[in-house]
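Internal ticket #5521
Category: modeling
Description: The requester needs a full-assembly model to guide mutagenesis choices. All entity lines are attached below as received. Residue total reported by intake: 990.
Assigned to: D.W.
Attached entities:
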Amino acid sequence: MKIGIYPGTFDPITNGHIDIIHRSATLFDKVIVAVTTNPQKSPLFTIKERMDLIQSSVHSLENVDVESFNELLVNYAEKRGAAAIIRGLRATSDFEYEFQMALVNRKLSKNLLTVFLMPNEKYTYLNSTIVKEVAKLNGDISCFVPKEVYIKIKEKFQELKKGAK
Amino acid sequence: MKIGIYPGTFDPITNGHIDIIHRSATLFDKVIVAVTTNPQKSPLFTIKERMDLIQSSVHSLENVDVESFNELLVNYAEKRGAAAIIRGLRATSDFEYEFQMALVNRKLSKNLLTVFLMPNEKYTYLNSTIVKEVAKLNGDISCFVPKEVYIKIKEKFQELKKGAK
Amino acid sequence: MKIGIYPGTFDPITNGHIDIIHRSATLFDKVIVAVTTNPQKSPLFTIKERMDLIQSSVHSLENVDVESFNELLVNYAEKRGAAAIIRGLRATSDFEYEFQMALVNRKLSKNLLTVFLMPNEKYTYLNSTIVKEVAKLNGDISCFVPKEVYIKIKEKFQELKKGAK
Amino acid sequence: MKIGIYPGTFDPITNGHIDIIHRSATLFDKVIVAVTTNPQKSPLFTIKERMDLIQSSVHSLENVDVESFNELLVNYAEKRGAAAIIRGLRATSDFEYEFQMALVNRKLSKNLLTVFLMPNEKYTYLNSTIVKEVAKLNGDISCFVPKEVYIKIKEKFQELKKGAK
Amino acid sequence: MKIGIYPGTFDPITNGHIDIIHRSATLFDKVIVAVTTNPQKSPLFTIKERMDLIQSSVHSLENVDVESFNELLVNYAEKRGAAAIIRGLRATSDFEYEFQMALVNRKLSKNLLTVFLMPNEKYTYLNSTIVKEVAKLNGDISCFVPKEVYIKIKEKFQELKKGAK
Amino acid sequence: MKIGIYPGTFDPITNGHIDIIHRSATLFDKVIVAVTTNPQKSPLFTIKERMDLIQSSVHSLENVDVESFNELLVNYAEKRGAAAIIRGLRATSDFEYEFQMALVNRKLSKNLLTVFLMPNEKYTYLNSTIVKEVAKLNGDISCFVPKEVYIKIKEKFQELKKGAK
């Protein structure tokens, strides 16, 4: 059985991520969407919230699991017996960072493949940060994220505004 | 009347920005230089100071106004009846970020155009951050910014050094 | 009256070009689509055929004219009294070439502006060459070009195949 | 059974191509290396020679076949029942062209995936053109290509020199 | 005597930096590795630690000195009588930032050259940040840094973990 | 004595090339401008004409020689005892090609350095091809090339037009 791991922060999951997950599910026997708990920046959603939002967005795909991990990605991938790490490539700006990570991961785990997929061009310039920036200023993000995320992110910013008072 | 909006942080305005404003003023009937009040990083100059520096730098251009805005750019542009958002493209590194923003803005406001202009190649690699870094270490920034900004930025760093003592 | 010139080879016009022409028509009082007769490579369509295909694709736009030119672009633009040259920016790979041309044109004609517009992301990776390559191998190009071009390009390749026999 | 198609000109196959084929062979149940007969430029090796050189270079891999094709890639892939097209991504300059092709192919065949793999960084800047340029000037290409190609390319250039006399 | 200055944060020095220093030492009569004390981000190692790690890594090179500096780079270079600033170029993403800095430095000191060298492709995607990220998660960084750095960085993270308890 | 080789086609030399030669002459004890006789495309000027134009453009620099070469660059560089190959980097689009060549050259000649210099930003987007394209259409190229080239290129195109009649 060929397992692919799709790692990320997913704060929150966007339609671009979901597009990549759908494509991955046709390529691998099993896809694990793996939420990193490594806190680089202060996230908007907790790990639990992020995993729930992913789960509700991809529940129709039977061969997709959602997990979190808190260690070096290559070690986690080895434990899961993964054949490959899956990464979405949207634009040139992604490209070099992704290459760097793929090369470093290969140095750390010789047989672990990195597989790059390309989302629909509709999602080329979409990422979680821009979704949050637009939502924060009350912009309409309904075409960028699934409905569950749309509702949750509105709630989140209302909470934050109340808390700021 | 065709209105173009040139949004930015302008912390502070540089000769590169001024070059774009001059070009825009020949393309549009009216150009609004719009200072965002959205505090991403801690700015060196206050909104008021930044607006004053822009004003004194472009006062010779009759069809240019200076404003500030505190909402989603596309909403602000719609209120002003703008035909287009104006952005300067200096180098490849700007390119993808600008594209992302333009695509997102188009999703949010279907008829709002983004127009890209290119500054003189003298200003290709100039931005506000580098001006501040050089000024902070007492480098000569007189060829990067208008005279008013040159004087003001020196004062600002002297204040900051006094405050640090 | 502000005139914009949109120069190109248009061999043949694609949906991406048409998208740029529509946007330009809202920005300028008059847009001239200018087909270069400068034969860099052997074109598939004659100047006359290319102009006819453009004409039939944009006839609904009242302020758009189609012309051909056979001289230095900046000289042609000056004769027409153009305020700006219009260029579509699709991807990073376009960017540097376009910059080079814009800088050279500015050197040759100081007050001539180059204005960059961005097509819908649907057309990001579309160009005339790829349309011809796909059509040549009998691929379906109906989503890449207007109907008139679709019909004409099929005829053209049938002629060429007959001629090759 | 998941089939991946690795298309290209392979004029001739390099160590970079071989690296991608090895990686692909662990990801797919079967990999078809598909030599295009579409003559864009005048190739150094005939289709038959190119296929033989690929065959001798990858004969140790049991799940790899070598074929040629003479039609639209997506049509060929559909006939073979391929799940994905495989492409190597070496550097930023590859990136946009590959994206364009992948997007066009997706338009032409909705369910066909394009999967990008990255060769070892040793092969980052290696391609068939540079191998031929160095070989033509008697440079040592033994670290760029398999031994069979090394021998054959020397023979080829000696033939060409004799023919030129 | 031609002096080259190789400035940087070196937090910590990697095999990629060392590769550049070795190349520089064949080009210049004297190379000064210059550690900036300008605290942009909170560094892992102190200036003293970073200088010691560089020193122990390049002690075999007789014409290489290690220094620190706390002023505008061009002023420091002038004081040292340097003919050139040395920068490593690893990938496209470095390129534009380096260009910007080189252009600004030229504006500030007209005769100061910036010389770009390229590390071995093995180090193309290596930088200090990635070394620290991998080390923090107990990954094996022995192929990325010299032995002294390998030992020291392990100690550092053990101290930090103890301190965090 | 440190020798740098600046190879190229120089068809014809531009102000950008001259800028790089001036910079190189301060870095190396001797600079050899080396015109390749390898005919990739049909050049406008003969080797002899190109060498004469370079000579007349840099005659004020005592440590600069002009030569031609007809073999693998690394072999030629070794014969001349060169410490480094000099290349100008103007823009991102140059970058990857130059990297590829530098890496291949390093493979072929282990100790040969490639040194990248950056021309004045005035020349960022200048190259021989664009000079010829503008000159061919009677555009004014006086700010792109030295006076000798300006005169010679006009003569050349007048000859070509006569020949075409």
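Resolution: model delivered.
Comment from assignee: The longest strand of chain C covers residues 30-36.
Ticket closed.
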